[in-house]
Amino acid sequence: MFMRKFELIAPCHFGLEAVLKKEIIELGYEILQVEDGRILFAGDEEAICRANLFLRTAERILIKIGSFPAVTFEELFQGTKELPWEEYIPEDGKFWVAKAASVKSKLFSPSDIQSVMKKAIVERLRGVYHVNWFTEEGNSFPLRVFLMKDMVTVGLDTTGESLHKRGYRKLTARAPIAENLAAALIMLTPWNKERILVDPFCGSGTFPIEAAMMAANMAPGLSRDFLSEDWEHLLPKKVWYDVLDEANDLVDLSVETDIQGYDIDDEMVTISRENAKRAGVERLIHFQRRPVSALSHPKKYGFLITNPPYGERLEEKAKLPELYGALGERYRLLDSWSLYVISAYEKAERDIGRKADKNRKIYNGMMKTYFYQYLGPKPPRRQKAGERAE
Known about the structure:
The protein has 390 residues and is of the alpha/beta class. It is 31% helix and 24% strand. It folds into two domains: 152 residues, VC0802-like (2-Layer Sandwich), CATH 3.30.2130.30; 173 residues, 3-Layer(aba) Sandwich (Rossmann fold).
């Protein structure tokens, strides 16, 4: 089967580009460019399916239709009209500019950009399909447009609902962390499936569930649908079936893990268990009602990875020093452990009682947060069978 070559765009959280870049390279694709909040890479039809199914840290996968400079709406119209829309959108396709974002550009009104581009696409397709009216009753083709320093980049969204929606989280905590952000933060640590992972503020269970899916080699997109599954003129069904078979063959639920999630709220523990069950990893995680003040573990060299409350509500803000203080206190008693905390609370380090060894600025949506990293020692290297003790 002849495979087309595409330029693909994978947006991600600001500050996590390096994690996504590594994932794409590990999937076997060539990186074309790294930009703030997105990675461009080369791939064929199979790459579109595999990226959607396997990438843990991306927001979505876009096919780059083209890019051109524009400082006036006339230039935007003409540039859009020149792109080969008929190669992507069939005559009955439903198409619209779902999102327009502009940074440091003369054209900055999203609604005007959206409407000018829609008119330009209609004019182009009228000439190709020789019709005056499009029914738009077929499959959906949402477009996303980025303007950066007057350069317009147009992408066709193959994903639909954002990739952070894995399909397992029907029930959530009040301020849940996005699944792809949780996965990226775990990947920023040296944790692996042989090591202990505990989340003392597990909420709806996202950190433990994402870690368990990694441990079981379970593709994050295995339990959800993608918009482009219906685009048979672009992505033959056989390609999707082959990639799904690949993903299913890789899953190993027999793996032994020590992954735990604690929360002070009984309802959250119940929700976590439900979500883990829906994800198919409930056997790999132990959830328990436990306040942070009772945090402990008998073994060494574990990881605490957590998203404690930030105090968005005033009545919560007053409790933060005590909460972060208790976390710091319990962490000091966990000999040889590492602690990783994502928080927008500006006094996190002070209340934990120690400056982080490293911290990293990450945008959680529009909220600036820091990923505080307290690094424990490496465990001694296990002797391999056959190695003789000195």
